[in-house]
């Protein structure tokens, strides 16, 4: 699960935990006791999203227990019913028929018993044989943050919305044995069934600086025993949160239930690294005999590894959707402003647009893409084709609501000859650093070119999403950036405005690069090269808001680029009903 923010705050705070890793990275989790039950008086609309998932007010974090059951998608999420900062966490609950339009229900799980009195933290749903959903979640049992694993079941399986959940008295199901760290012991996954007929789950933990994904087994889902060796662990990565472990199909058109453990598949192991607050994954093989996950050769296992998203995206969780044979990923984007801004706004956090997960045909990474249902919100459309952009040119995309839009564009370029050299001193893993000094205003050879989102006419405020291509001996390096550094004129020193970036492992033989951006007031969620690199930025423009926001395509590279095709849509608001 994810906590609140790690920014300085002048009021006295209660320091909950502090981990210092051998890399010198430090993550401070602060709990704002004085604010966590300060109910929002006014909920500010400015910067609230139009089509992303948000409750009416207050704090949200991790998506929990997503599932499809009898024609309905369920989304639970960590929610503070009392304030706009982390605290008082319950499992809020919403249901949908299409992952886009939602109905809000009463919280499904909230502290009430000795085994979850101090908190109901993250967890997952499993549909047991006989079509019986069960939720596993982490309960906090004392003021020392001791964690246990509990289960909950629907009170009435005939209720199509499964509104009421029961936490049976034989909870907790799993307590930490002596060799396990009971305060880093949380976030159980969806269970999968082994060939021996036993269920397995994994959950996040640590031992000193080693990140661990503990493995538990059970015949009946009630009596769980720890498998001595963890499913996976990596030295020097610190605390692991919200692990996710699932198969992806190799060359398949259908994705797979979590219990598929053999066949033409690879396994994905995703970890939310508490120390850096990003979601990392590797691809590999699940050795079912040894009950061990083994990453493929060449995979980087740690904070230089592959990420679902290079920006504000954490504590994600996937589920298998049997209705459309796909795997769907939910991820949480926190705010990038200050705690006192959130208290003033009366809200904090959004769930990003659910994404499908498939294996890249190259077998080396995943491709993520917004679920097709999002397209039902597309309204007014404008198109642009065959538009050449010389160096320094930009073209405005008129006719759509630029603050609430979906844009798909394909750029092409005649030649890569002018690509700038990639210096050997640059860190191959630190795209963000490169983007921070090779931003959109720094002219290049091939690129920077891309979109300018949430912009004022004279670019006093703008969030560019763009590519830049470098030459590195016999190959090319493609940098993709989503740069928040000039996104807002709000005068705040030291505000978190990162130049999020990633390197795109893409074949450039056809001399084309595609980009899709979902723009939603304070969210810019972008997908490069069909979902090879995704970057989410949270930004707070002061002028480029509502009808004053503009959208452009631009080129600041010597090599002319062509917009092969660009389609932009104004996005409608989904229907969200309250019960
Ligand atoms: C919490 O930890 C302190 C210090 O280790 C200990 O004295 C206390 O008994 C613990 N409280 C509970 C409720 O476990
Ligand atoms: C269970 O849900 C069904 C459908 O909503 C309803 O008709 C029935 O009365 C419920 N049963 C109980 C015991 O609440
Ligand atoms: C156990 O976890 C807590 C919370 O992350 C941490 O402060 C502590 O150092 C951990 N202990 C060990 C031995 O890893
Ligand atoms: C729980 O499972 C373990 C391992 O299968 C077994 O040894 C133990 O007897 C079981 N306990 C209960 C109460 O059934
Ligand atoms: C392109 O470069 C010019 C000149 O440096 C700069 O004024 C402009 O803002 C740049 N465009 C973008 C999108 O950064
Ligand atoms: C989101 O907020 C920023 C700015 O406060 C922090 O730097 C990030 O660590 C935080 N991300 C998460 C996942 O909590």
UniProtKB/TrEMBL annotation:
Entry-linked Pfam families: Glyco_hydro_32C (PF08244), Glyco_hydro_32N (PF00251)
Annotated keywords: Glycosidase, Hydrolase, Signal
Domain Glycosyl hydrolase family 32 N-terminal: 52-370
Domain Glycosyl hydrolase family 32 C-terminal: 373-570
Subunit structure: May be present in two forms, a 70 kDa monomer and a heterodimer of the 30 kDa and 38 kDa subunits. The ratio of the levels of the two forms within cells appears to be regulated developmentally.
Family of the protein in this entry: Belongs to the glycosyl hydrolase 32 family.
Protein's recorded name: Beta-fructofuranosidase
